[in-house]
Design a protein that fits this description.
The structure is a homodimer of 199-residue chains. Chain A has one domain: Hypothetical protein af1432 (Orthogonal Bundle), CATH 1.10.3210.10. Helices cover 67% and strands 4% of the residues of chain A. Chain A is built from ten helices and two strands. In chain A, β1 and β2 form a beta hairpin. The first copy, chain A, is globular, with a radius of gyration of 18 Å. Chain A starts with a helix and ends with a helix. The interface between A and B is large, with 44 and 44 residues. Bound molecules: calcium ion. Calcium ion (CA) is lined by residues 40, 71-72, 136 of chain A.
């Protein structure tokens, strides 16, 4: 363990502090403010630990946790891409440059491990990546349901759009979670419809 | 997997959202605001991943990450106890009640696992717990060094007090990190002294 090894690791850990200042669209559950990507990543790692039994296939939960801890680090350079925003063709390029720069702060072996975990998450092919992706969709859905619509209300997102944007990813990685989420969503939108009809 | 199992897990995940509103003494590295305990826990899990080779003994890094992800959850009820604050004799009682209530939201097996991991962290006897404790001291030390003194300046903490409050815990769990930290601290306080002498 050369001193250069340690100082590169420290540089990386200092750099990723900036993830605490990347603001997402989703609010906290008490609606006091928007969530940032660092605390979102903590919460997702907890979702993985607590909901591991609901994954499709026998996932290696350590790899799922690692993926979720690092999945948003590219946002330090590239920013958060909102699920309901206009999609940006350059976003994938930006994120790849960000991964190269930020993981590149680390010594080679660690750089390779993190880059590969991040690419695996993005590719959404392995059981671990599909479960991680499912949780990354399930958590903001839960937040919207329990904050009277959250980003759905803000962005005038309709019932069918929610099914389309969240359903396939959650269904693939964690089907029982989608059963539950689908019921929440149906109930949420029927309440909204009734409210609209009455007022 | 009974429906009651899933709904208890969801209740727990909703409850711990409140950790994002527990504010610590330490600032972010850009000094824009104070850090909260959820993003702090994310950062510590990353410290564990990135600095695993510097642990005393051959630690199981998955258990270290789990410990760090849950170590502050009791603060949802008990609040954060600042390292430089007056120590509160009731704090340990409060934290034990908090652990019983919050982990008790989970199904029995998960409650037992998390409660045991949290007690292991607090006991600071296993190699994993000692490494986790070392990181939990090293991270705020790094923040203070790179924010012109941070909570040390605010609380008029002297060089000898820093050595005493951070040294033994970091030294025990990660001796090479303490070598580095000790140099940072010595350099920080000598710069402060020189500055004081000049102005
Ligand atoms: Ca995400």
């Amino acid at each position: 363990m050369h001193i250069d090894d340690l100082s590169r690791r420290i540089d990386f850990l200092r750099e990723i502090d900036r993830l605490k200042s990347v603001i997402r669209q989703s609010p906290l559950l008490d609606a006091s403010r928007k969530e940032n990507s660092a605390e979102h990543s903590w919460h997702l790692a907890m979702y993985a630990l607590v909901l591991a039994d609901y994954a499709t296939g026998a996932v290696d939960i350590t790899r799922v946790m690692k993926m979720l801890l690092i999945h948003d680090i590219v946002e330090v350079d590239a920013g958060d891409m909102p699920i309901h925003g206009a999609s940006n063709a350059n976003q994938m390029d930006l994120e790849q440059q960000a991964a190269a720069r930020i993981f590149g702060l680390l010594p080679d072996a660690a750089n390779r491990e993190f880059s590969q975990l991040w690419r695996e998450f993005e590719a959404a092919e392995s059981d671990e990546a599909q479960f991680a992706k499912a949780l990354d969709r399930f958590q903001p859905l839960l937040v919207n349901v329990f904050t009277q619509g959250g980003t759905w209300s803000e962005n005038h997102v309709r019932y069918e759009q929610v099914l389309e944007r969240y359903g396939p990813t959650i269904q693939r990685g964690a089907p029982v979670l989608w059963e539950l989420a689908h019921r929440w969503v149906a109930s949420h939108f029927s309440v909204v419809d009734v409210t609209n009809a009455v007022t």
